[in-house]
Amino acid sequence: xxxxxxxxxxxxxxxxxxxxxxxxxxxxxxxxxxxxxxxxxxxxxxxxxxxxxxxxxxxxxxxxxxxxxxxxxxxxxxxxxxxxxxxxxxxxxxxxxxxxxxxxxxxxxxxxxxxxxx
Length: 118
What we know:
There is one protein chain. The chain is built from no helices and eleven strands. By secondary structure, the chain is mostly beta strands. The strands form two sheets. Strands 2, 4, 5, 6, 9, 10 and 11 form a seven-stranded mixed β-sheet that branches. The chain is globular, with a radius of gyration of 14 Å. The N and C termini lie far apart (about 35 Å).
């Protein structure tokens, strides 16, 4: 499975961006889709995850500001980011997980840079 992330850019604090993650095959076959981010000098961290039934979970730092959604018809997962803060600056990666014949399969996109200026 190939994941292509897009939508990053430069935005002022308080602004919004929407990230997209397009998959090369049906995401209905990938139960867990999510977004992670990695800021300079820091470890990659989970931002948000969405299950096949639409159940979502968010990092405490983004709750109430970010919304993850999935459009199975378009094979795309989105991350709507509002009220952005400078500390949201990072490379954002989309991720997919499913159980395959040999166990857990995990897929990563190439990352898209989000820069929030103060």
